[in-house]
Design brief:
The protein is α/β, with parallel strands linked by helices and 223 residues long. It has one domain: Vaccinia Virus protein VP39 (Rossmann fold, 3-Layer(aba) Sandwich). The chain has 7 helices and 12 strands. The longest helix has 13 residues. The protein is globular.
Length: 223
């Protein structure tokens, strides 16, 4: 959360992929002082109404009920436990193969950006329980056009269910001239990844356009 409060600016556009109940969306809107745009995207039907209520209470009215990945159409969304906290487009990881599922609409982020006629995209948060690489691939045109910075949840527990690896992320970043960092809440700054980054159960990584690196507040250990 400190990352949004430090890096977002009034007038910017923030896309929240995997909004859940809206915490990141609400903080983003508050950080921009109501003078920015927030697009919240959530696939889990069990979460949508609570998310909608939270967004409305904070003056946010752009909610899209769908999954985001690199192919469009109807897909199975697998639900773990009561289904309100954790859901995924793949079994494995934290979702048992016998988990109940529901059909949801899947879209690419590029199609959403085009539909919403967004004239800028400054930041994207991606937390979709292992399918983060699919979201990045689905946003190729938007990322190439707008060069946003991204918060991406990496997890050694969930990525394998999508046959995704840290090497995939590194290759994606190299191909698009993005640097991989993380954010230190203690320093309130962008810092280098820890040595054990890819073995961590969960880690929010920052993907920063190389040409904009000097615009971000950095800690002394950032390269």
């Amino acid at each position: 959360m400190a990352c949004l409060e430090r890096l977002l600016k009034p007038g910017q556009t923030f896309i929240d992929c995997g909004a859940n109940i809206g915490l990141f969306s609400v903080i983003a809107s508050a950080t921009m002082g109501g003078r920015g745009r927030v697009v919240s995207i959530e696939a889990n039907p069990g979460t949508i109404e609570r998310l909608r209520a939270n967004l409305r209470a904070n003056g946010i009215d752009d909610l899209i009920a769908c999954a985001v990945t690199d192919r469009e159409g109807e897909m199975e969304l697998y639900l773990s436990g009561d289904g309100d906290v954790y859901s995924s487009l793949s079994t494995g990881g934290l979702v048992h193969p016998n988990s109940r599922s529901t059909l949801v609409t899947a879209r690419t982020l590029d199609s959403i950006v085009a539909e919403r006629r967004l004239e800028r995209v400054d930041a994207i948060k991606i937390d979709v329980e292992g399918g983060e690489m699919g979201v990045l691939r689905s946003a190729s045109a938007s990322i190439d056009r707008f060069r946003p910075w991204c918060i991406v949840e990496y997890s050694s527990l969930t990525w394998p269910a999508f046959n995704a690896s840290p090497e995939d992320l590194v290759a994606w970043c190299e191909s698009r001239r993005y640097a991989i960092r993380t954010f230190s809440a203690e320093r309130r700054a962008v810092v280098s990844l820890p040595d054990d980054a890819w073995s961590q159960s969960y880690l929010n990584v920052l993907l920063l356009p190389e040409e904009l690196l000097t615009a971000f507040p950095t800690g002394s250990d950032s390269a």
